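The instructor's notes for this session suggest beginning with a concrete chain rather than abstract definitions. Hand out the sequence below and ask the class to guess, before any prediction is shown, which regions might be ordered.
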Amino acid sequence: MRFSISAAVAAMGILAGSAAAAACGNTSSGFDQWKASFAQTAQRAGVGQRGLQALASARYSNGTIAADRNQKSFKYSLEKFMQVRGSATIIAQGRKRLARDAKFYGALEEIYGVPAGVIIAIHGMETAFGGFMGDTPVVSAITTLAFDCRRSDFFIPHAIGALQLVDMGSITPATKGAKHGELGHTQFLPGNALRYGVDIDRNGRVDFYNQSDALASTANFLASKGWRRGAGFQQGQPNFAVIKEWNAATVYQQAIAIMGAEIMR
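After discussion, reveal the predicted structure:
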């Protein structure tokens, strides 16, 4: 079972423009007024009562803004980035995970065409295999970024997505994730979670804090972005471009490609 793309998600490009008409801001001043205006946009997108209540209770996240202004690690050299992000540990632990759960990863590759090493490398890079999935309320973080003038148009659809996830019961207003509103084992942005989520264990609910659902959703994301079954994923090879869809930082993409290959070596 997967989330279907609702009419609201399909219309997000239009919604971004209308929501942007509400005054954005670079400080907490005006956030409550913006939320009141954004609630109308959310309603037009099909967000229900639970999602609207989550929006009303969202708080401006100063920690999110501080993190958004200070993303130093992506400016490192590849060698430094991999050292800081613990690539040696990710590779070592990733090999153990692959050996232990080979059947599960093999099933994902059979369904989606994405090899285990890439999925495991992303899992390790994003949350240390679920060891730390964030300490910031997702709805507050993503609505803060939708309000913030720096990248409103990018985050508004994800704010709508987060509210719809609340409606669906996949997250609650209290669910915590990363500083930019990413959630679960592999840190999906909410709009992507809504679009690519997979209920792999078929319990009727897509749960990104459940490892199986999160990893299947990650494989589905990459497959949906054009992953070519059996093709290479190192820099210059066909699937490297798909890794770029997961994260825009070149050092991140290179690290995932390198670690993914090493995990399967």
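Then share the key points. Residues 74 and 95 are 25 Å apart (CA to CA). The chain is about 60% helix and 0% strand.
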